[in-house]
């Protein structure tokens, strides 16, 4: 029992062990169970991430293409836009209502408080450059946690088998 965590539901999560190993599962809590992202977490459509105190949803976007102007030597013309990937990050507010969105370029992007492509300047729990989203292959992206302290967290939507070194968050308790 963790009595001083206002973000934790009375029955927040279940942790148990079976023949497959140790697992964690959300017990229909208000704020969910979050697994700390290890380097190279592949993103899928609809996945929710928490960085600092911000919650983002990674999703497909209808915006693609927009090829930059490039000369014969492969140099991009100044002022030409970055090519879009067809994915975006949606920043979610209270009750999951979208409050901002950022189209992810094909070459990836950084998220942070000040030195980033997607800047959230009013969250002192975010590092200056907190995480990076990078392309993997032709159509996948992965998130890499660059923060020194608060991490990048993946919201669990099903039972998750834990492996050595996994860290999970319930409420504000790690």
List the helices and strands and how they pair.
Elements: E1 13-18, E2 21-26, E3 33-36, E4 41-43, E5 48-51, E6 54-60, E7 84-92, E8 98-105, E9 109-112, E10 118-119, E11 131-136, E12 140-145, E13 152-155, E14 160-161, E15 168-170
Parallel strand pairs: 9-10
Antiparallel strand pairs: 1-2, 2-14, 3-13, 3-15, 4-12, 5-6, 5-13, 6-7, 7-8, 9-11, 11-12
Could you give a short description of this structure?
With 174 residues, the protein is mainly β. Helices cover 0% and strands 43% of the residues.
Explain what this protein looks like in three dimensions.
With 174 residues, the chain is mainly beta. Helices cover 0% and strands 43% of the residues. The chain contains no helices and 15 strands. It has strands spanning 13-18, 21-26, 33-36, 41-43, 48-51, 54-60, 84-92, 98-105, 109-112, 118-119, 131-136, 140-145, 152-155, 160-161, 168-170. A 7-stranded antiparallel beta sheet has the order 8-7-6-5-13-3-15, with no helix packed on it. The radius of gyration is 18 Å and the shape is elongated. The relative contact order is 0.26.
Count of separate DSSP helical elements? 0
Report the portion of residues in β strands.
35-45%
Task: Tell me the series of helices and strands, N- to C-terminal.
Answer: EEEEEEEEEEEEEEE
Q: Structural class given helices, strands, pairing?
A: mainly beta
Which strand order does the major sheet show? 8-7-6-5-13-3-15
Oligomeric state: single chain
- Overall pLDDT, averaged? 90
Give the total of beta strands.
15
Helix content: under 10%
Distance between the termini: 13 Å
Question: Over the alpha carbons, how many angstroms does the gyration radius reach?
Answer: 18 Å
Q: What spatial form do the alpha-carbon principal axes imply?
A: elongated
What low-confidence regions span 5 or more consecutive residues with pLDDT below 50? none
Main sheet properties: 7 strands, antiparallel
């Amino acid at each position: 029992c963790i009595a001083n965590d206002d973000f934790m539901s009375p029955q927040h999560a279940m942790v148990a062990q079976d023949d497959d190993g140790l697992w964690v599962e959300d017990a229909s809590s208000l704020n969910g169970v979050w697994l700390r992202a290890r380097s190279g977490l592949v993103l899928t459509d609809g996945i929710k991430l928490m960085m600092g105190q911000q919650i983002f949803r990674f999703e497909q976007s209808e915006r693609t293409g927009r090829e930059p102007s490039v000369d014969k030597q492969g140099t991009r013309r100044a002022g030409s836009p970055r090519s879009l990937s067809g994915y975006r990050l949606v920043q979610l507010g209270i009750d999951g209502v979208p409050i901002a969105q950022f189209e992810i370029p094909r070459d990836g992007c950084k998220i942070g408080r000040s030195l980033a492509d997607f800047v959230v300047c009013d969250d002192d729990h975010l590092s200056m450059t907190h995480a990076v989203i990078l392309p993997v292959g032709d159509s996948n992206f992965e998130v890499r946690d660059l923060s020194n302290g608060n991490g990048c967290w993946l919201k669990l939507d099903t039972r998750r088998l834990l492996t050595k070194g996994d860290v999970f968050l319930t409420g504000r308790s790690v």
